[in-house]
Design a protein that fits this description.
The protein has about 400 residues and is of the alpha+beta class. Among the domains are: about 90 residues, DnaJ domain (Helix Hairpins, Orthogonal Bundle), CATH 1.10.287; about 90 residues, Sandwich (HSP40/DNAj peptide-binding domain), CATH 2.60.260. The chain contains ten helices and 15 strands. The strands form six sheets. Strands 10-11-15-14 form a four-stranded mixed sheet. A three-stranded mixed sheet has the order 1-9-8. A two-stranded antiparallel ribbon has the order 2-7. Helix 3 runs antiparallel to helix 4. The longest helix is centred in the first third of the chain and has 17 residues. The chain is elongated, with a radius of gyration of 32 Å. Keywords: Chaperone, Cytoplasm, DNA replication, Metal-binding, Repeat, Stress response, Zinc, Zinc-finger.
């Protein structure tokens, strides 16, 4: 996305939030709008589809702290009238700039890297003393990264799964294959800037570099633009990406898919897709690192006399031996039956035994328990011996 598009679009307004909104408020507003405007919920409604694309575009920028800061700074600078339509910079009334002042030093890293295209690309060569040479050659503007989210079931996340993601973002034009030129033609090098994308002019002691008006800073001219993308090389479209979620992924982890983000302008490299995975809770299993946990209900007699109980795992059921005299709350370990590890193997299954007390007993059961109680007393067993100073 170009800086001019950033100036003309109000992403905060698209999401219906204030410019001071927190990250959580941005996420909440986007989720509600995306749910209401998704093409699956509005079949055949072109207005809803356009709004869905605009909302997705706004979320892509505002959900990324670096992009949001760059967007806010760009709009602040341009709304103040500092950069006019002709591309020249007008110093403020408070005083001029010294010859050692270089906006490239301030904004050179704002775009997160040379090829990303940001404030550094816009201002990097603005103040070159003495009208010296500008950067040689224009750099392709890499597409922006895209953020997405998906929610998995607990067992899906533990075992791994492939999920489809539906994304609306700039993608390479299928007609011109990203070149921006009509099929059968090619862009030509701009004769004004010789492909650099910028031109220089002198004003007093300063040498100013500004985007070339002839090619609009791209370094090339398209005489016959593609009729579908109008020369940009990209189209906003909804696409389906099958994402392989590796086994053992944890809640909140992100997966990077290189080159699956927004398409770059005129064939430049695409950005990356970052998928944040949310994992829902399970009714049986819990998780501690690579270990699975579960609570096993047992009777008092099973703890005293011992037993073998069938328990579930991610790959079926296994028998767990409860030794005689096992205390309530003891953890029994089943090795290798936990969450798969990245380097191979798996964690363990940790089984915590919990006494299940019957809510109601018949007369025979009550009589048997009273007999057991008397036998325990006769044998000298005291469950509270040494407890609390007793």
């Amino acid at each position: 996305m170009s800086q001019r598009e950033w100036i003309e679009k109000d992403f905060y307004k698209e999401l219906g939030i204030a410019s001071s909104a927190s990250t959580e408020e941005i996420k909440k507003a986007y989720r509600k709008l995306a749910r209401d405007l998704h093409p699956d919920a509005n079949p055949g409604d072109p207005k809803a589809e356009e709004r869905f694309k605009a909302v997705s575009e706004a979320h892509t920028v505002l959900s990324d702290p670096a992009k949001r800061a760059e967007y806010d700074e760009t709009r602040r600078l341009f709304s103040g009238g500092g950069y006019g339509r002709g591309g020249g910079f007008t110093p403020g009334a408070g005083g001029g700039f010294s010859q050692s002042f270089d906006l490239g030093d301030i904004f050179g890293q704002a775009g997160g890297g040379g090829a990303d295209g940001g404030l550094g690309d816009l201002f990097g060569g603005l103040f070159n003393r003495g009208g010296g040479a500008t950067r040689t050659g224009s750099r392709p503007r890499r597409g922006a990264d895209v953020e997405a989210e998906t929610t998995l079931g607990f067992r899906e996340a533990a075992k791994g799964v492939t999920v489809p993601l539906y994304l609306t973002s700039p993608s390479p034009c299928t007609t011109c294959h990203g070149s921006g030129a009509k099929p059968g033609t090619s862009p030509r090098v701009c004769p004004i800037c010789n492909g650099s994308g910028v031109v220089s002019r002198n004003q007093g002691a300063f040498g100013f570099s500004e985007p070339c008006d002839e090619c609009r800073g791209t370094g090339s001219i398209i005489d016959d633009p593609c009729v579908d993308c109008h020369g940009s090389g990209t189209q906003n479209r909804t696409r389906t990406i099958n994402v392989r979620i590796p086994p053992g992924i944890a809640d909140g982890q992100r997966i990077r898919l290189a080159g699956q983000g927004e398409a770059g302008l005129r064939g430049a490299p695409s950005g990356d897709l970052f998928v944040t995975v949310h994992v829902s809770q399970d009714k049986v299993f819990g998780r501690t690192g690579d270990d699975l946990t579960l609570a096993l209900p047992v009777s008092y007699s099973e703890l005293v006399l011992g037993t073998t109980v069938s328990v579930p795992t991610l790959e079926g059921r296994v028998g767990v031996k409860v030794p005689p005299g096992t205390a309530d709350g003891r953890i029994l370990r089943v090795r290798g039956r936990g969450v798969p590890k990245r380097g191979g193997g798996a964690g363990d299954l940790l089984v915590t035994v919990k006494v299940a007390v019957p809510p109601k007993l018949d007369d025979d059961a009550v009589a048997a328990l009273r007999a057991l109680q008397e036998a325990e007393k006769s044998s000298g067993f005291d469950p509270r011996a040494g407890w609390a100073g007793a």
